[in-house]
Amino acid sequence: MAKLLIVDDEPVNRELLHAYLDDSGHELVDADSGERALAVARNWAPDLVLLDVMMPGLSGFDTARFLKELAPDEFLPVILVTALADHDSRLKGLRAGADEFLTKPIDRHELILRLNNLLALRQKESSLQRRNLELVELQKFREEMSSMIV
Questions:
Q1: What is the pTM of this model?
Q2: Residues 6+ apart with CB under 8 A from 91
Q3: What DSSP string runs through 14-71?
Q4: Residue 51 banded pLDDT, cuts 50, 70, 90
Q5: Are residues 59 and 34 in contact, defined by beta-carbon separation less than 8 angstroms?
C-alpha cells in the first residue's frame, strides 16, 4: 500500500482521482494548493504525487521542483495532471522534475498503469539503496577485520 498525495485546487478533479483510485488499496491524501502539498509532504512523506499544474499561488511546475528538493536522496515520483497538452508545457514539467505527464481528461487505465510503474520503480530504487548501505557496512567490517588480522 502506497501513500498518494493528490494536489489540485479544484475539488471536482480531486474527487475524480479518488473515484479512480479509491479501490486501489493505496492511502490517499488531498491538498488544494502547492503550498499545502509541500506542508503535507514534509510531515507525511508520500510515495507518489499526482499534481495539477495550473493552480493559484505555487504552480504545479514550482511545486514539483520543491517536492523533489525536499527529499533529494530518494525517488519521489511526480505525475503532472493538467489540461496543458502543448510540447513546451511538457518540457517545462520534465525540467521541473516531473516523471510523467497526463493530460485531462484522464484515462483511468493509463493513470493506473503509469502510477503502478512509477511505484514499482520507486520500490526497486529503495531496495537498491538498502542493498548499497548493506554493502558499505560489509566493506567497513571487512576492512576492520583485515586491520585486526594484520
A1: 0.86
A2: none
A3: HHHHHHHHGGGT-EEEEESSHHHHHHHHHHH--SEEEEES--SSS-HHHHHHHHHHHS
A4: very high
A5: yes
